[in-house]
Amino acid sequence: MEKRIVDIDVVRGFAVAGLPVVNLGLTVGKTHYPTAGPLASVIYDDLFLHRFVTIFTFLFGVSFALVLHGASERAARPRLVLVRRLVALIAFGVFQLFLLDGNLQLFIYAVLGLVVLLPVSYLPRPAMPTIAVVLLLFSLPFAGEGLGVGAAVKLVSISMALLVLGASVVAYGIHADLPRRGPEIRTVFLIAAPLAVVTNVLNHGATTVFGSVIDELAMLSTSVAYVTGLLLLLRTRARRPLVAVLSPLGRMALTNFLVQAAAATVFAAVVVDIRDWNYVAITFGLTILFVAVQSVLCTLWLRRFRYGPFEWLWRCATWLTVVPIGSTPTLSSEGTPS
């Protein structure tokens, strides 16, 4: 089998590393969380809020498509394999919803995978990016923040678009051809980075239609700039440290995500009210410390085991068999639970 696609693992690890900055505050609750200063607020809003979860969602689309691709080579009914994988993800989502931080993220991915990705897999390849673009355009006019109807419609539309877009990357073989895509990646970065700067400067929230459009453009362009910028860095001397730190996080993304949720839940229950604490130390400092520990633990774990614990459970449920978990030569991303 082919080796894992390390660049995808690194990008996935990068996404996982940025999630706690937002999720910790959501778990503790706004009324019990420190207030950000002007600079910290700008950094949070422009560089973190919705940016990393956008990448995370896109990569779930990539992962689902990789599973279907791998299953088509080893199973008589590959889409049934994908259905089992998505149903198993629903179980993880219910676990997170009721026993951890109450986050619906995994549950939403699974349901949208069943509702959108499964039907889309029957369509001709050119239809996939077309559907993704249509869904993004459909989401643009919806204004609203928090729990409003407009915000909900926008969230679902964007999530569907990102999942389909991720699947499109696999359908066109881009995921397997990243080392030869340097010029294209550089071009996309040179477009996305300036657009991210401009839209973030203009962004004042999604309470109006114009504001909603700018907010979405800022979110998407920043996320694209992050991904393409990171892929370009992987072509420099920074590759070795980036792979060493981020790849283990990415290979155990589901485990890390659920551990982060569990840690945030315990933290919120123990400290209760941290309004008087330092915002920067809690939001950014604690994230750096926690993610660094996760990276070390993942590295040590993967020296002995092929999969993270939740990745292993997910794979067993996907294939309806007890999969060996012992360490072996690194395998292909196709069909893996990462």
Automatic annotation (TrEMBL):
UniProt domain DUF418: residue ranges: 173-320
Transmembrane segments: 48-68, 80-100, 106-123, 130-149, 155-175, 187-205, 217-234, 254-272, 278-302
InterPro entries per the UniProt record, alphabetical: Bact_Transport_Assoc, DUF418
UniProt keyword list: Membrane, Transmembrane, Transmembrane helix
Source organism superkingdom: Bacteria
Transmembrane keyword on record: yes
Protein name in UniProt: DUF418 domain-containing protein
Source organism (scientific name): Nocardia terpenica
Organism lineage: Bacteria, Bacillati, Actinomycetota, Actinomycetes, Mycobacteriales
